Amino acid sequence: MSRLFSTRPGDDGLPGPERRLAVMALILGTTMAVVDTTMVNLALPAIAADLRVPAAEAVWVTNLFQVTCAAFLLVFAALSELVGRRRLYAAGLALFAVAALGSALSRSLETLLAFRALQGVAAAATLSIGPSLYRAIFPSRLLGSALGLSSLVVATGYAAGPALGGTLLSVASWPWLFALPVPLGAGAVILAWRALPREPRRSGGFDGWGALCAMAALASLFLALDGAGRAAGGGGWAWLAVALVAGAAFIARQRRAAYPLLPLSLFRERRFSLAVAAQGLAFVGQGLAFVALSFLYQREMGFTPLETAWLFTPWPLTIMVAGPLAGRLADRLNPSLLSSAGLVLLMAGLASLARLEAEAGVIDGLWRTALCGLGFGLFQPPNNRELMASVPAERSASASGVMSTTRTMGQSLGVALVGAGLAAGAPVQLTLWAGVAATALSLLASLARVPLAGEALRARRRAAAERVQ
């Protein structure tokens, strides 16, 4: 860990001592958003009972957060170039804490949903630019290690969220889940304002029409996927039509806008495009597996919800181990080879879970889930390094927004595939095979950029040697 904060002559990014405080601000912001998502899902039955609303309506406490977060990711990534990433990140943390307090004090579903929507907007402000801030904070030679640390933080949040939420709900009522981020958010705002790098802001305008088209397209696509996952009938198709029309309008707008919200020229860089494709498809597999395994363990194998939660635990735990190591190796080896090896392991894990029999025991489920986590942990940091490092530094915010959007939509598509499969009467094991297929496509995208990543690695080594001379 001390290597992350070492300084060498010619390093870009922040000096070592300043790096520590800046990273702590990012860790707090990411942890609040991730833990919030995993905790609130556990509280939905209690919220429905306390506010006297149907369970189907209480689900919108989670859904509305996700819709607004997805809709604003690209918008905030572009806006950060105008207002500055430090200002936007600190403002997002402050809004998240205020909205969390409002959620805790809500005594009706309508009020709670309004504050949850605000929390989603706030989460988008931080998540959209988080990866790009790692690039600004750390020197280029440590970018993979830095993104490995980011994967460690996310995995820790996913692992700790359910346990923390369950513990709180056992001793207190659901509003305390929302109150928890308030003091953390206040401290994170102060830290972010003091420690994050100060940058020159871009001059020029903002693509307002592009922002509206992006929000309409992403929110509609999320609702369409949610409708498909719940077999909502014609409503899902209507939202999909809106998403396609808004998406086409967004692309047309970006081609002629003076200051495009998302420069389409980014996708001409093959390393970037292939990394985006690999990430989206891998997150389809992960999102699909998370939902499918809940049904497999409980409905097919007869485990209790608590036992199912423990059977999930190896996935984030192995990411916590493999992620930082993979990130560190990605600074020295070909990142695409590393991420491809991770996808092979993820495919093997998903295939072994799809073949799991109803009579299998706990150990059979644990090692298969651990294999999936190991593969995903080996895949993600090297792939993120390729995605971020393949574009110019001044486009880091745009690349970060694409990364966050692709991750969110990939997970949502995975969930929708499980829901559609179960609604059609397909066995849950078949949906896991769909995850294997999505991961196989991700592997093809990852392998296609191996030569390109190798050339970039050799260029990086030559530049490092020139600095030493």
Describe the 3D structure.
By secondary structure, the protein is mostly helical. The protein folds into three domains: 14-197, MFS general substrate transporter like domains (Growth Hormone, Chain: A, Up-down Bundle), CATH 1.20.1250; 207-260; 267-469, Growth Hormone, Chain: A, CATH 1.20.1250.20. It contains 19 helices and no strands. It has helices at 16-51, 55-58, 60-83, 85-105, 109-127, 130-137, 143-171, 175-179, 181-195, 208-229, 234-256, 270-300, 305-312, 314-330, 335-354, 362-389, 396-423, 428-448, 450-468. Helix 3 (60-83) runs parallel beside helix 5 (109-127), helix 14 (314-330) packs parallel to helix 16 (362-389) and helix 17 (396-423) runs antiparallel to helix 18. The longest helix is centred in the first third of the chain and has 36 residues, at 16-51. The radius of gyration is 21 Å and the shape is globular. The mean pLDDT is 85. It holds the Pfam family MFS_1. Residues 22-454 form the Major facilitator superfamily (MFS) profile domain. The chain crosses the membrane at residues 21-48, 60-79, 88-106, 112-130, 142-161, 173-196, 208-225, 231-252, 272-297, 309-330, 337-354, 432-452. It is found in: Membrane.
